[in-house]
Amino acid sequence: MALALRALALSAGLSVLPTIALAQTASEATPAETPIVIGRSYTLPSAIMGATREINVWLPPGYADSGQTYPVLYVLDGGQDQDFHHISGLAQLGTVAGTTRDVIVVGIASVDRRNELALPTQDPDLIARYPTQGHSDRFRRFVAEEVQPFVETRFRTSGETALMGESLAGLFVVETFLKEPQMFDAYVAVSPSLWWDGGVLARQSGARLRDQSNDPRTLILTLGDEGPEMQAPMDVLTANLRDHALPGLSWSFTPRPTETHATIYHGAALDAFRRLYAVPAP
């Protein structure tokens, strides 16, 4: 009888083992899951734009404890589903590798790009295709009067600022540099859509440059292999920059013939980081 009971107990124990093993395997196969947080997103009420706007901010590692102040890079088309992550990733790479100075990245999200980033056009075809276009002056006021004060009062900034954008955002960068050069210390325009309104901004650049002061600032221009519609107004702009040399202005134009409009931005932005935020030599 005792022998039979021992056999029964052993049989019951063996029948439980597969269940325990299965539970352990299931537990081991389901790793813990936590969200990856890259920066912070703010909903900024804007009286100028008449709506709340998305502002995304990436802070350098160690910001909370450093007590230091930092330069600020403002990125147009800076929404979470736009260019914020790949530009803030360059800032993180520079910090981790020690190849560039720490910088705060502020992404300004776009909603209606031709409304916000393009100057007014007289072209009836463009007006018909984009009836809301042409309010870049209002968006510039939003950046100057609402976004920059928000950043400067909330974060430890050094006063060194830069504006970066690609395509229509690059057009906005060039327009801001020509019309309100004091807004930023540096301007980075990647494949700017200078073709807009028949290239009028490039043609006006000579007169705009004549009116500028000699305050120190930087302009970085670059363009891929994007055809004569993009290249011709860039040639006009760079010719005017050469003809109206300003002692305080450091500017460059880098052709990138191996890049297209779709591929140019990330590499060009990395080069701009290395120029604007180079680590000082020991």
TrEMBL record:
<feature type="signal peptide">
    <location>
        <begin position="1"/>
        <end position="23"/>
    </location>
</feature>
<dbReference type="InterPro" id="IPR000801">
    <property type="entry name" value="Esterase-like"/>
</dbReference>
<keyword id="KW-0732">Signal</keyword>
<dbReference type="GO" id="GO:0016788">
    <property type="term" value="F:hydrolase activity, acting on ester bonds"/>
</dbReference>
<keyword id="KW-0378">Hydrolase</keyword>
<comment type="similarity">
    <text>Belongs to the esterase D family.</text>
</comment>
<dbReference type="InterPro" id="IPR052558">
    <property type="entry name" value="Siderophore_Hydrolase_D"/>
</dbReference>
<protein>
    <submittedName>
        <fullName>Alpha/beta hydrolase</fullName>
    </submittedName>
</protein>
<dbReference type="InterPro" id="IPR029058">
    <property type="entry name" value="AB_hydrolase_fold"/>
</dbReference>
<dbReference type="Pfam" id="PF00756">
    <property type="entry name" value="Esterase"/>
</dbReference>
